[in-house]
Amino acid sequence: MTEPFRLTASQAQAAFKDGSLTVEAYAKSLLDRVSVRDSTTHAWAYLDPKLVLERARELDKILPEKRGPLHGVAIGVKDVILTKDMPTQYNSPIYKDDAPKLDAASVQTLRANGALIFGKTTTTEFASTSVGPPYAGPKTANPHDPSRTPGGSSSGSGAAVGDMQVPIGLGTQTVGSTIRPGSFNGIYAMKPTWNSISREGQKVYSLILDTLGLYARSVDDLKLLLDVFHLVDDEPEEEFAIKGAKFALLTLPQPEWDAPGPGTAAALKKGADLLRAHGAEIEEITLPDEFRPMYDYQLKVLAGEGRVAFLADYYTAKDQLHPLLISHVENEKKYTRKEQLKAFDDLAAMRPKVDALADKYAAIIGPSVVDEAPTGHENTGSAQFCGPWTVMHMPVVNIPGFKGENGMPIGLSVVAARYRDQHLLRVSREVGKIFEAEGGWARNP
Amino acid sequence: MTEPFRLTASQAQAAFKDGSLTVEAYAKSLLDRVSVRDSTTHAWAYLDPKLVLERARELDKILPEKRGPLHGVAIGVKDVILTKDMPTQYNSPIYKDDAPKLDAASVQTLRANGALIFGKTTTTEFASTSVGPPYAGPKTANPHDPSRTPGGSSSGSGAAVGDMQVPIGLGTQTVGSTIRPGSFNGIYAMKPTWNSISREGQKVYSLILDTLGLYARSVDDLKLLLDVFHLVDDEPEEEFAIKGAKFALLTLPQPEWDAPGPGTAAALKKGADLLRAHGAEIEEITLPDEFRPMYDYQLKVLAGEGRVAFLADYYTAKDQLHPLLISHVENEKKYTRKEQLKAFDDLAAMRPKVDALADKYAAIIGPSVVDEAPTGHENTGSAQFCGPWTVMHMPVVNIPGFKGENGMPIGLSVVAARYRDQHLLRVSREVGKIFEAEGGWARNP
């Protein structure tokens, strides 16, 4: 039998159902995996094996007919999301060992549906910087090459799911904090439509951008989560076939973007070739010029909303805040309110237009990251390719399957119009089958 | 000497400064006032006199040169805003006695600046309904006539500040939950620009509408708060004079609004006459037709965001949720995502246009409420006149001074473009002097 820790959540659930696995045995297998791997990956900010096993035994006691749709699904929670039975420390010295007895709405929802909240995963400071050690960043390493970053800010969830320490992870995304670690760690990562899942109890950076993010090693697992979170499209759930589907492929470089590295450039080309080979039509597009200011607007929105978000901690412990966050509060860039409002309003005006563009295709395909995970841990990498979809509030899935020059995983982003999350997942399932089978990268056994 | 409880926060601070009053003596006076009045007004969801006096004594011990700008300012906190040393119960049976050890960002900011967090004030369920008893609503009464409602959802903060049980109160506003109790209780109420103050740790109903609200009995007190919360306009702080200023007066009824009651109609006429008599120019306006859909859009945004906001509690305790909140989660109105997005996007497109309209005037003057506070406690009154400014993200101040047919207070709203909060406060100071002196209503001595 496969070691239980290797199972996806859906596979583990099938084993719970047919009686071949208990939640306790599953949890033990995951904990064993963590104990073997943690000194290498450092993905956890808090993990109490005793608590995990206690909860697992409680779940095993629930009668089969009373089990929730997430029964026994182990979930790592990014440490900027409140959990009532574990500390939430934001990788900030201000919140060391802080443990308010409160679940974020997302965690409350998962628990109510039978999930096993496993532990807290590492994050960069308040999920708001791209900084690793020696500053305050997490010392989390990429499981596929510990000399490389797992990405950020959802460093721990990305690494833990990529390393089979847990099948599901929660991240957050304000620019690229969910999708980037998804690519770097070779897993599926989803940023759903903005505010389609409650972000109550999740640290605020930007109200208009912050989104809960989801990690898994299969599309089935993401589907489990979307259903529990009541994500419903307007359109009925119809089967999606690659053959005959039309995709948009973002040509690169876009005017405001850096050029992709060789790994991402090759992945984009190979991805398009594979889809064509399976009968899809690929149309190369560039984002029209009218959308070019979105890169500049994103910076202004972040600065303007960060100015508000970090004021309380600025008052209580300015000396323990990263300089970037201080610069927001002090409006170091001297952005005027007028500039901030123009950015806010113009981004809002772009959203229905970009939706209309996306609606012409099964999905838009673009890069998730510049290239494979860079070496070193000082910096968690660039989020520039993720920002546009975040400011547009669109759902994005990182699909793994490709590899870079050093054999590290590279994923591609598929993107749909707002509230087409379930559609995007159906597209991702079919695209994922192809990319995973023929893209050239496979998770180490 | 005036009994300390009658002082505004700014007056109390002057007395702390000249040594004529300690924070402890002030707190005792407020607690005495509460003990005399609480059986009538029922404004508090939680108040621990021992804790208040302990904190007051701690504040007294701080050396004068180390005192914060809000030193000793007593603040009632609406019971949907987290406080680390008091329960937060949302007037929901689900959260009875729930007390996570966490301060909302607003409370953290106030504490860090020396405020005395006094107690938790009553609210309707999750600040999301307009329902009083016998359903789950607070039994809070209007201090000026206990047979009447104090308004909602910020019932307790409105009543407590109106009744001089505390000089400052925090409310929240998603439609009219701050401004309406302001008018009903005869006090200043301010809804600042959306997201100009962090709403982290404040119950979420609608991310795009929820705003922290402020109550006080003087403009000086509101100014203290805006400064601590770093609300800075683009324009420098220049003196404002009524003479020569131009105001817009909303003519009523607007196409989508009910007609105002006789009290509000008289207040609008008298307010305009008074300002004219003091040398202001008044231009009557109606909102252009293109803005009329905002009333419909507001409902769709509330339904769409409420669908997300109450999902977690729906899973854990549906039987203890108000039917309105269940109807949101279940999307009883069958709104499509397309309708919800159109509402969201079109409201966004209106905001810069309404700003431009407001910028032609010192402020727009409109009704805060339909009329004086209605009798009974089953319903906290209509918020229809407040909704438009909330969906437009504009700052609003309720200015007291008028009275209705039964002698109850009535206020008027002054409104400015986004991020002109400090400007609006300067306007409110001068307008308030006139309305309070000549409007016809005065707080009972």
Automatic annotation (TrEMBL), chains A, B:
Can you give the residue ranges of the Amidase domain? 28-425
Q: Which Gene3D superfamilies does its entry note?
A: Amidase signature (AS) domain
* Pfam families (UniProt xref): Amidase
State the residue spans of region: Disordered.
Answer: 128-163
Name the SUPFAM superfamilies on file.
Answer: Amidase signature (AS) enzymes
Name by which UniProt lists this protein: Asp-tRNA Asn/Glu-tRNA Gln amidotransferas-like protein subunit A
Which source organism does the UniProt entry give?
A: Massarina eburnea CBS 473.64
